[in-house]
Amino acid sequence: MKMCPFDLSKPRRGETLDSICQGRLKIIQPQQGYRFSIDAVLLAGLTLVRSQDRVVDLGTGCGVIPLLLASLQSVEHVTGIELQESLVSMAKRNVQINGFEDIIHIVQGDLRRLEVGRVGGPIDLVLSNPPYGKLLSGRLNTNSGKAIARHELSATLGDVVGAAARLLRHKGRLAVIYPARRLCRLFAELRSGGFAPKTLTIIYSTLDSEARLVHLESVKGGGEELRVNKPFAIYGSDGNYAEEMNAMYGNVSVVS
Length: 256
What we know:
Layout: E1 15-20, E2 25-30, H1 38-46, E3 54-58, H2 64-72, E4 77-82, H3 85-97, E5 104-108, E6 123-128, H4 144-150, H5 157-167, E7 168-179, H6 183-192, E8 195-204, E9 211-220, E10 227-228, E11 232-233, H7 243-249
Helix pairs in contact: 1-2
């Protein structure tokens, strides 16, 4: 066996090494840059993934969504696409330290120019946490990594939908997490991109709060019928994770 000359799991300057899912996964991520949030856990946990699905995660960041899928669902192949070189390097290290080199492939690329050949043929499922903030609306984060991830600097929601349309086979699925307040725009972009919204889950911080996010699965070239699932609460009235959240992954909290 060829031995690595250095410890890949040792965080470098400006990084942290965190454990999630009761220690099942170790994640290296930026100390000050864009760190994954519970949105990633929700996207990986609420999306139906079949064992034979070929999956692509657009804007994979440090690779947390592919890692969650490989660790906690029976997925056979996931490709993570990321634009930022520093995050690509980090994602590749995360794949290695968790032992998923045979399942996860990290690719540096611009999703706006991504073609199906780059991911090995038509895909069954695309996942993405698209940038939420429209350019020139709201305050732009001064950290460039956070700004690119959260605002439409390098890609818009329409770009994400367009990339999914190019990558997916006919009747392939696109799953996203998106702010509930912008659901109308999400529907419009999906319909114009040739997708039919099929399964909607409305996500609340608590069941007595306003809707925070939505999880939406859409089908390329699908019909009009839409199923709305029961509401999903992240927290219970006691401030701890709700039963549904704990059932998804147990203790998902980050431990440094």
